[in-house]
Amino acid sequence: MLWKDKWLSGVTLLEKYPRLYAKSLSKNATIREMGFCNNGSWEWKLEWRREWFEWEKSHIDIFMNELGKRTIVISRECVMCGRGEETIQHLFFNCTLVEKIWNMSDKWTELSQHIII
Asked: How far, in Å, are 16, 25, 27, 79, 106 from residue 4 at the CA level?
């Protein structure tokens, strides 16, 4: 999570920037939800409760400079099993964890006992 995980110098952003956290509209968002990759570089998409006053802008500048020093790499690895690229093909046909879920749903619905033609 952007604000609550210790991914920035061993301290959370919440601990380091409590005033900015208080004004954030996305207190429980992940890093992935707070930006996007544009031509190979990360662009932050932070949303705030209100516009910043002039005297507060230096705080947000320091914050954004610190975030800008970090390289954000979005993993394409399957978050379910960690064994392949997360694609539709992988999730429906190759993911070992999803396969277990499909098997359990078959048992719950007794679908495996019926032949569908």
From this structure: 10, 14, 8, 20, 38
Position 26 pLDDT exceeds 90: yes
Asked whether 52 and 42 are in contact (CB, 8 A), the reply is no
DSSP-based three-state secondary structure for 35: strand
Whether residue 44 is found in the same domain as residue 89:
no
**61 lies in the same domain as 102:** no
Q: Are residues 51 and 94 in the same domain?
A: no
Q: Which residue type is seen at 17?
A: Y
pLDDT tens readout for residues 56-77: 899 999 999 888 887 776 677 8
- Residue 38 pairs in a beta bridge with 41
Average pLDDT, the chain: 84
